[in-house]
């Protein structure tokens, strides 16, 4: 563990009062979770010194910044606890496969998509669907995103990963759902037409992914989480086909009657 501080100042005669205060604060939290598990000042000093590693280019090291945003912390505003892992001198987290996946999805999106041209009923479509689109977007990025702030161990990192995963899922969902719809309707188009109903479907796809994300957070790495969501979209695409077929069958029965 590589941390910014050690216990040298707390071990000095002038730091005794501060050490007692720190020990009291730690025990107020530890005691609430595990009654009878209070720490002594010496144990607190030993725990602080666990972050005394000098690091290096080999092996595995955790790098900790307990208060990133000191001014915000002092002013009782926003701050974060930053924790990263170095393996053989390289930052560990989202693997290069995720960056490659994002590049492929972005490339396909800009290569195969285009916005639908304005039609005579464009204003009517916006009036009809736009509010639905905004509401689903708020649910995905604000609702699910900031719901994670209530998770004590994952709050800030969970929000950031939620934003990244939602954006990535929506891009792929537009590709999958758009291609599925065009294939079912046998539309002879070289590019997928982006309209508000398609974006709403993609947003619901992202919402389903965020529900799964909440179930596995803390049990999978960010890379595993993103790959899981990518594969989940394929299942959603098949569901979109079934939904379209069901609607068509119901419409045919209604017309026949």
TrEMBL record:
- A GO term from the CC aspect: plasma membrane
Database matches in InterPro entries: Ammonium/urea_transptr (IPR029020), Inositol_monoP_superfamily (IPR051090), Inositol_monophosphatase-like (IPR000760), RhesusRHD (IPR002229)
Coiled-coil regions, chain positions:
none
Q: Which cofactor does it need?
A: Mg(2+)
Annotated membrane topology = Multi-pass membrane protein
Recorded hits in Pfam families, A to Z, give: Inositol_P
Residues engaged in binding Mg(2+) = 33, 65, 67-68
Cellular location of this protein? Membrane
Biological process terms from the Gene Ontology for this record are: sulfate assimilation
Molecular function GO labels: 3'(2'),5'-bisphosphate nucleotidase activity; metal ion binding
**Annotated TM spans:** 93-112, 132-151, 163-184, 196-217
Keyword field? Hydrolase, Magnesium, Membrane, Metal-binding, Transmembrane, Transmembrane helix
Q: Which family does the similarity line name?
A: Belongs to the inositol monophosphatase superfamily.
> What's the protein called, per UniProt?
SAL1 phosphatase
Question: What organism does the UniProt record list as the source?
Answer: Tetrabaena socialis
């Amino acid at each position: 563990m590589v941390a910014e501080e050690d216990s040298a100042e707390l071990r000095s005669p002038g730091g005794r009062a501060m050490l007692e205060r720190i020990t009291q604060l730690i025990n107020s939290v530890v005691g609430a979770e595990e009654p009878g598990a209070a720490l002594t000042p010496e144990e607190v000093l030993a725990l602080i010194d666990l972050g005394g590693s000098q690091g290096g280019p080999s092996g595995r090291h955790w790098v900790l910044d307990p208060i990133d945003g000191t001014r915000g912390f002092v002013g009782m505003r926003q701050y974060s606890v930053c924790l990263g892992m170095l393996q053989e001198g390289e930052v560990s987290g989202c693997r290069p496969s995720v960056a490659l996946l994002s590049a492929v999805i972005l490339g396909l999106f800009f290569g195969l998509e285009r916005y639908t041209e304005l039609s005579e009923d464009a204003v009517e479509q916006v009036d009809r669907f736009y509010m639905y689109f905004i509401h689903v977007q708020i649910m995905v990025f604000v609702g699910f995103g900031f719901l994670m702030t209530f998770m004590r161990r994952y709050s800030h990192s969970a929000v950031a990963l939620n934003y990244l995963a939602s954006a990535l899922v929506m891009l792929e969902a537009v590709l999958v759902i758009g291609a599925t719809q065009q294939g079912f309707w046998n539309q002879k188009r070289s590019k997928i037409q982006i309209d508000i109903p398609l974006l709403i479907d993609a947003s619901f796809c992202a919402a389903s992914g965020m529900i799964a994300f909440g179930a596995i957070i803390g049990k999978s790495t960010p890379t595993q989480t993103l790959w899981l969501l990518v594969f989940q979209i394929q299942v959603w695409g098949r569901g979109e086909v079934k939904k379209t077929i069901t609607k068509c069958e119901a419409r045919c029965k209604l017309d026949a009657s």
